[in-house]
Amino acid sequence: MGQAVGEAAVRAGLELIPYSFCSSKDSKTKSQIDVGGISVELVGPGQDRDNLIKTLQSQYPNMITVDYTVPDVIHDMVDMYIKHGMPFVMGTTGGDRNRISKEVIESGVYAVIAPNMGKQIVAFQATMETMASNFPGAFSGYTLKVMESHQSSKKDTSGTAKAVVQSFQGLGLNFDVSQIQLIRQPPEQVNVMKVPESALLGHAFHTYQLLSPDGTVTFEFQHNVVGRSTYAEGTVDACLFLAQQVQERAPKTLYNMVDVLRAGAMR
Ligand SMILES: NC(=O)C1=CN([C@@H]2O[C@H](COP(=O)(O)OP(=O)(O)OC[C@H]3O[C@@H](n4cnc5c(N)ncnc54)[C@H](OP(=O)(O)O)[C@@H]3O)[C@@H](O)[C@H]2O)C=CC1
Ligand SMILES: O=C(O)C1=N[C@H](C(=O)O)C[C@H](O)C1
Fold first, then answer.
1. Where is the Dihydrodipicolinate reductase C-terminal domain (predicted)?
2. In angstroms, what is the span from residue 61 Cα to ligand 2's centroid?
3. Quick one: what percent of the chain has pLDDT higher than 90?
4. Are residues 210 and 237 in the same domain?
5. Which end of the chain, N or C, is less surrounded by CB atoms within 10 Å?
């Protein structure tokens, strides 16, 4: 995602700051990568990130940091952004989401944090949230089946599926996120979820099926994404939105992508 977002930022005419944090594995193998024609230096966790951040903050006072790392390091990354007062857009899933929200709000650091940045999926999430608040319990008694297929390198449960399940709970469904079915094996991805073979290394196919108590009514919601571009474009929208909130010293500091969409800030 980091590469895709960098390229989308360059396409949108933004200035890409030529540094990216990486894991220690990456910092040992290479120190420069090309992102949309810009040579970006990789900085591993062992390097002096604190001093680099201070230097970049004075060089680029309007800097927005984008985080697509891994659930294992999400809290360390948030701690670092808070410590340095760095406005950030975070697409990374996992971690303790309530803890992150609480810490970010208390710090007053500006942030957009969301498990999905794709405009139409964000609109779907907002619709489901509205449905749950307008018609609480409308689906009580129904049973829910949720399947999500992602590239086999993804270890955690889809953050998007977890967020949508929250709305289904509001609609009266008795369903826990631990019941979400994770599809990570290529044969099942191709044969059951109908993922094109060319997308096995990067896809997000979600299916939510609802069945009435007497079995006479079914609903099915599905969103299937091949590749990364929809999230990368949405991330750039989030950066532009957040930069504006920082500039205006908006009283609210923590946002999600539904806020960005409602503000009319998604292209
Ligand atoms: N909100 C949204 O719309 C979307 C969210 N996501 C989420 O974003 C996250 C990343 O996804 P994806 O890009 O596919 O995953 P990848 O595994 O491709 O990328 C994660 C990157 O984080 C790097 N990394 C690991 N540890 C650190 C660290 N301590 N400091 C800096 N960088 C580190 C990894 O380096 P290395 O490979 O060297 O270990 C890797 O380059 C996941 O949680 C995913 O679910 C994904 C797509 C869209
Ligand atoms: O890892 C991914 O690829 C994605 N992760 C996010 C999630 O966990 O919901 C968003 C999208 O599904 C792609």
1. 122-261
2. 31
3. 95
4. no
5. C
The catalytic position among 119, 154, 162, 223 is 154
Ligand nearest to the CA of 116: 1
- Parent domain of 94: 2-117+230-262
User: In CATH, what number is assigned to the domain containing residue 186?
Assistant: 3.30.360.10
The residues, ordered by sequence, that sit 6+ positions from 91 with a Cβ below 8 Å of its Cβ are: 1, 66, 67, 68, 114, 115, 116, 117, 231, 235
d(CA 217, CA 256): 33
pLDDT tens digits for range 56-107: 999 999 999 999 999 999 999 999 999 999 999 999 999 999 999 999 999 9
Distance 60 CA to ligand 1 centre (A): 24
**Separation of first and last alpha carbons in the chain:** 19
Q: Give yes or no: residues 97 and 175 share one domain.
A: no
The number of the ligand 1 atom at minimal distance from the alpha carbon of 118 is 3
Q: Is residue 267 part of a domain?
A: no
What does 100-134 look like in DSSP terms, one character per residue? HHHHHHHHT--EEE-S---HHHHHHHHHHHHHHHH
From the CB of 94, is ligand 2 less than 6 Å away?
no
CA 72 / ligand 1 centre spacing (Å): 10
- pLDDT value at position 28? 73
User: What does R_g of the chain's alpha carbons equal in angstroms?
Assistant: 19
Q: Is 150 a catalytic residue?
A: yes
Q: Whose CA is nearest to atom 3 of ligand 1?
A: 116
Same domain, 135 and 223: yes
Task: Please name which of 5, 48, 53, 45 lies closest in space to residue 26, comparing C-alpha atoms.
Answer: 45
Active site (annotated) includes residue 119: no
- For every residue of 152-166, DSSP letters joined together read TT--SPPHHHHHHHH
Domain match, 146 and 199 both: yes
